[in-house]
Write a structure and sequence with these properties.
Shape: globular
Structural class: alpha/beta
Largest sheet: 6 strands, parallel
Order of helices and strands: HEEHEHEHEHEHHEHEHHHHHH
Helix content: 25-40%
Number of helices: 14
Strand content: 5-15%
CATH class of the largest domain: Alpha Beta
Strand order of the largest sheet: 1-4-5-6-7-8
Number of strands: 8
CATH superfamily of the largest domain: Aldolase class I
Number of domains: 2
Distance between the termini: 60 Å
CATH topology of the largest domain: TIM Barrel
Bound molecules: iron/sulfur cluster
């Protein structure tokens, strides 16, 4: 900035990765906090794993850097003071360095719902290897960490090997997921199709796999190769990168890939991914997943249950009434009824199920009806 202000900018500056211990807290006072549902705190950057499609490790590094717990608490308190009761710990892999995570979680547990504060629900991203550590999961629950996004990706072992997703190998993914949910942490599953070892049967296999998981929220994506990743280099060397300016390569893309799949066309991959998503959102599949989740979810500490759980009775919940009126068909009304019944049986489920119901209605009611047609030409 001094060079800029003195008109002496150099052609190039080479920085180091930022030291999170010295990071200044964000100026949330400049932000439209009244328009946001959740606050954000980043407690670490980077991830030591090596998934070949991941660009996070290319720009944030594989040596994880950490923010000291007292600075995290300072930021969390600032968000609380602004009125946030949902906070996203926006790390790449929150639990991978267990010792530091345990210390941070204990600090959050001592803060959350204590000294007259209302409970705050935390969500974050972590890898499935956390299931091997019951103490760490218990610490998540004590701190009020209610939801974790996880790259479960696929049940196809060859695909996990080819993408170097080692942490998902040699374990039973369903069993590990059950352990996490029964510790009180809800899993949002990241799912992927379009690996080289995926043929046209992958969509139905993935549908069956997800139906065996105690998961109420998920994200389906096709495999893409972001620039700078090992996968991009590999695909470029093989002449399989498709350059279309309108398709920005991004891991958040649901349906369009920038690579030529090995065992299907790009159109079949898009069609199959949309079919998979529509299948998982079909009421006859949503209801058993909600029920599976309700049977599996472990206990949560009463002082960390959001206040609205003790609010108006579930029967008269204004959102449920509104959703029921909006529902266009009997099947959707059945899903709403399922949420009502499960929440009445166990009020601690209400916040999770209401959130999942909102996502379901948002996605299901807007998707084109042709997405739910049988997969003629894809899964044959
Ligand atoms: S675990 Fe997640 S953040 Fe880490 S390398 Fe794999 S995809 Fe990237």
């Amino acid at each position: 900035m001094a060079d800029l202000l003195s008109g002496a900018l150099k052609p190039r500056y080479q920085g180091q990765k930022a030291d999170l211990a010295k990071a200044l807290p964000p100026r949330w006072d400049l932000y439209r906090n009244d328009r946001a549902l959740a606050g954000v705190v980043q407690t670490s950057r980077g991830c030591p794993f090596d998934c070949n499609f991941c660009d996070v490790i290319q720009y944030l590094g594989r040596v994880q850097r950490h923010k000291p717990p007292e600075r995290v608490l300072h930021e969390v308190q600032a968000l609380y003071d602004l009125g946030y009761r949902q906070i996203n710990l926006s790390d790449d892999n929150f639990t991978v360095y267990r010792k530091r995570t345990e210390v941070l979680l204990e600090a959050l547990a001592d803060w959350n719902g204590k000294d007259g504060r209302e409970p705050v629900g935390f969500l974050t991203q972590m890898s499935i290897d956390v299931a091997r550590h019951p103490d760490l999961l218990a610490a998540c629950s004590r701190a009020g960490l209610r939801t974790a996004f996880m790259g479960i990706e696929t049940s196809n072992i060859e695909a996990l090997k080819e993408s170097r997703k080692r942490q998902n190998l040699r374990i039973d993914l369903v069993e590990q997921c059950e352990k996490i949910v029964s510790a009180g942490v809800s899993v949002q599953a990241g799912l992927m199709v379009g690996f080289d070892s995926d043929d046209l049967s992958c969509f139905e296999r993935q549908r069956d796999f997800v139906m065996s998981l105690p998961v109420i929220n998920f994200r389906v994506a096709v495999l893409v190769a972001p620039v700078a990743t090992p996968l991009y280099e590999q695909m470029e060397a093989a002449g399989r990168i498709v350059v279309e300016p309108s398709l920005a390569p991004s891991t958040s893309a649901i349906a369009h890939t920038n690579i030529e799949p090995a065992q299907m066309t790009r159109e079949q991959l898009t069609e199959g991914a949309m079919w998979l998503r529509a299948e998982l959102l079909a009421p006859e599949n949503v209801i058993p997943r909600f029920e599976h989740y309700a049977r599996t979810l472990g206990p949560r500490l009463p002082h960390l249950v959001p206040a609205q759980t003790g609010g108006p009775s579930v029967k008269a919940h204004p959102f449920l009434e509104l959703f029921s009126q909006m529902a266009r068909n009997r099947a959707t009304r059945r899903v709403i009824e399922c949420v009502r019944e499960l929440s009445e049986e166990n009020p601690l489920l209400r916040a999770d199920l209401m959130q999942a119901l909102g996502m379901y209605l948002n996605s299901y009611m807007r998707q084109p009806s042709e997405a739910r047609q049988p997969m003629v030409g894809v899964a044959q």
